[in-house]
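Q: I have 435 residues here and want to know how they pack in 3D. Can you give me a structure?
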Amino acid sequence: MSSQRRSSADSRQGEYRILHEADLRNYLAGLGEIAARLGGVPDSWSIGEVGDGNLNLVFIVKGASGGIAVKQALPYVRLVGESWPLPLSRSHYEYLALTHQARLAPALVPDVLHHNEALALVVMELLEPHIIMRKGLVAGTSYPRFVEDITTFLARTLFLSSDLAVPAAEKKEGIAAFGGNHALCKITEDLIFTDPYRVAEQNRWTQPWLDAVASAFREDLDLHVAISRLKLKFLSSPEALIHGDLHTGSIMVTEGETKVIDPEFAFYGPMGFDIGAVIANLLMAYLASSGHERSPGDRRAFEAWVLATVEGVWTEFSRKFLALWRSEANGDAYPATLFQGEAGAARLEAERQRYIEHLFQDTVGFSAAKIIRRILGLAHNIDFELIEDAKRRAVCEARSLRLARAMMVDAASFRSIAAVTKAAREVRDWQPDFG
């Protein structure tokens, strides 16, 4: 990975500077292939900054012949400002992850067209007419291709970077290549696994309705033990190269295509974190849906699709993961020489099923953690935030927190993905008492 990074580096790299429109136009004009892709003269290119995330600048550049997306890391957390510095190296890890994912899951990530490490800048294909999936879910749009695509992405990127698929030396080289991305990991460790369960300056929630819930979560030792166990697994289990931030804001979709973007949080961590993130965001879309109703029940068909999608994500992921294990087990884990003959094959298959069961338990717990952080922590999402009536929003959030606590504290009681969707259905019409 490191040799590929060096050979792809821009020979014109210099000192970092934040690129504004004029600087970016001049920079792109000097890149022959990029300028040809855009077409026309540089002065005619339209450039718009569209970043609505928490960390980076994102530009859409269009010319006579086509368009590109340009992403530049800022030296601080955009959501907070210069008081929260952040290393620019996250752009390097995003580039590494995108190129790695493109090899493992072709056509499911945007094409990388150019990378400048010094400027912390990546140029990618412009995804059109794709939209951010979360925006589509808020609007009540269903995506029939999503399960097939996201489970292919998850199964291939996770299995094919694990000890089940690659020799130990190769796996260790991968861990080392992403080992420096600890500043982004620290954000996850604090904002997901710690801050929502303690008094933290940047926490926020829908007040005053969720005040009592937030207080209860800060005093709930069963919850604190459960989240600490998950945090320990996140800290100490480099199972595979994970995306690290795989929510519905990091997925762009049409009805027929899915693209995973923004892997700057990538590192070698627990597989269940990525799978749980996808499921958590679907569950939040489901439980936020009633807050977006124009008339009672008008989104029930959409909600049924969301829960069917939750079930499909786990079912299809586990099926594809096991199929890869049976056909591409080239790693040093579970050597084939130890499982020869009919009895050995049967025992190995039983071990595969046990592995999947443990992975499902991790997935349930991490899913709960992702839900809680989006309601009681710093960075919220529009599934809830776009519900204009604050009390109505709080009702949807309280339902989500009720489900998430059960999933985290009693993950072992959720023996199947159907048990998760059943619990979501049961909490969907529960009415919290805000006192």
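Q: Anything worth noting?
A: The radius of gyration is 22 Å. The mean pLDDT is 95.
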